[in-house]
């Protein structure tokens, strides 16, 4: 099989790899589409995500969908030929966190395309892939596999909303209108928020938020840096804020505009050691500051919402490249003035 393998900074190669054997509880899938995520971009441009550096050749990718090719003897819920959404998380299911129902905090997580452990967990930008049976979510034969490759980032937005608490009738702001921010905004609307304001530094991203994700207002904080000040007051304005940009300045801007007793949910990954937490307003206004990491059970809900059409993910789909042109795809994916999310068409035999 062919796979897009990262060997280090700016060193991505489409190479042939052997297909491993299948265990009884595993499934071999043909991967149809893979979305290029921010973490994939960090591995490509920097050779690392935070402290997780590439130390051996690693296939990238974790936002994937595909078709079942072969099933292990212990797998009964899928069969060859079925379309499927593919969950990149493989928790151990036995640690204290897994047993307590918080699988996203698993101490022995195997997450596709991650250099967080060694040997690395190989990713999904490969023509075939082996996953544990519970990572395979069968979908109807007419399901859109390109849309289903967005199930993982949509699940992050759903998890962030769950961490925020009930949003029915609430006023919400999202800083950062990349794929995760846009999907979080759509999830907040789906959860009943009556006001959803999105910020960013790119007009193109904000146009998607406003015109296709139903945000009630968008603010370009680069060209209108004082706009957020209109929401500042002793009582604040927003019930919930989602920080999805990963920018320290964006996080800092939220404390004056969140209501007393409100909640800030950190969704974007901030650079290590840069989080500016103003403790005094955090304490005196009793603002709740919580983290949201990946997803915990929301993947299946994301699949159902996409298949049913309850949430339309097409606004973030910006185009596809064949696997052989993976380097070109990665080079162009960072142009936020043109693209929200690019995908790699990985296995043309099943598209």
Radius of gyration: 20 Å
- How far apart lie the N and C ends? 16 Å
Low-confidence parts lasting 5 or more residues at pLDDT below 50?
none
How many helices does DSSP assign?
A: 10
Order of helices and strands: EEEHEEEEEEHEEEHHEHEHEEHEHEHEHE
How would you explain this protein's 3D organization?
By secondary structure, the protein is α/β, with parallel strands linked by helices. 24% of the residues lie in helices and 28% in strands. Strands 3, 7, 8, 11, 12, 19 and 20 form a 7-stranded mixed β-sheet that branches. A 6-stranded parallel β-sheet has the order 15-14-13-16-17-18, with helices on both faces. The protein has a 3-stranded antiparallel β-sheet with strand order 2-1-6, covered by helices on one side. Helix 8 links the parallel strand 17 and strand 18. Helix 4 (151-164) crosses helix 5 and helix 4 crosses helix 9 (298-308). The mean pLDDT is 96.
Characterize this entry briefly.
With 351 residues, the protein is of the alpha/beta class. The chain is 24% helix and 28% strand.
Key terms:
351 residues, alpha/beta, seven-stranded mixed beta sheet, six-stranded parallel beta sheet, 10 helices, 28% strand
Write the layout of secondary structure elements.
Layout: E1 2-8, E2 11-16, E3 26-35, H1 38-46, E4 48-49, E5 52-53, E6 58-59, E7 63-71, E8 83-86, E9 89-90, H2 96-99, E10 110-111, E11 128-132, E12 136-138, H3 145-148, H4 151-164, E13 171-175, H5 179-190, E14 195-200, H6 203-211, E15 217-220, E16 238-243, H7 248-254, E17 258-266, H8 279-284, E18 288-291, H9 298-308, E19 317-322, H10 326-333, E20 341-345
Parallel strand pairs: 13-14, 13-16, 14-15, 16-17, 17-18, 19-20
Antiparallel strand pairs: 1-2, 1-6, 3-7, 3-11, 3-20, 4-5, 7-8, 8-12, 9-10
